[in-house]
Amino acid sequence: MTTEQTAVSLARDQYAKPLVVALASGCAVAVLLGVYARLHHPTHYALDVAGFSSPLYAKAWLTTAAAVFAVVQLVTGYRITRGAAAAWMPALHRWSGRIAILLTVPVIVHCIYALGFGTYSARVLAHSVLGCVFYGAFVAKMLSLVQRDKMPKWVLPVLGGVVFVSLIALWATSALWLFATKGVHS
Known about the structure:
Layout: H1 3-39, H2 55-81, H3 89-115, H4 122-146, H5 155-182
Helix pairs in contact: 1-3, 1-4, 2-3, 2-5, 4-5
């Protein structure tokens, strides 16, 4: 084995374990959410948020706001990884992500406890799976972020991309569907 091959092998070993731990943890969260939501007997008790006409619209607007913050995440993350970010952009990136996740918390609580893991239509099944993927990818990204000095540079953008795509797909299978079928109102 040459010195160059040894260096590549050591670099792989350096990030292999933290990466596997992050990905395995994310997968475990996704599976546990799905299993719990499927086995949990839905209460059909709706989360009522003041100012909205129904719990579905509360969830739709919270998810829409989270999707907007996710777009901010995408733009700022792209600029940061390209080295073209202003000094304030990393802070905007972090805070937009925090706000996006916080906006999704009442939504997932309602989805899991009131509705469970739905399988009665392709849209609802896709939405249920995407919810699990979203939170699993988020956990994997956060664990990778903690170990970022031990990770290759591509890990955070890829996991961030999975978080972004799954959130936008969640929005499309819920809020966009509701707005398209029932109308846009609060």
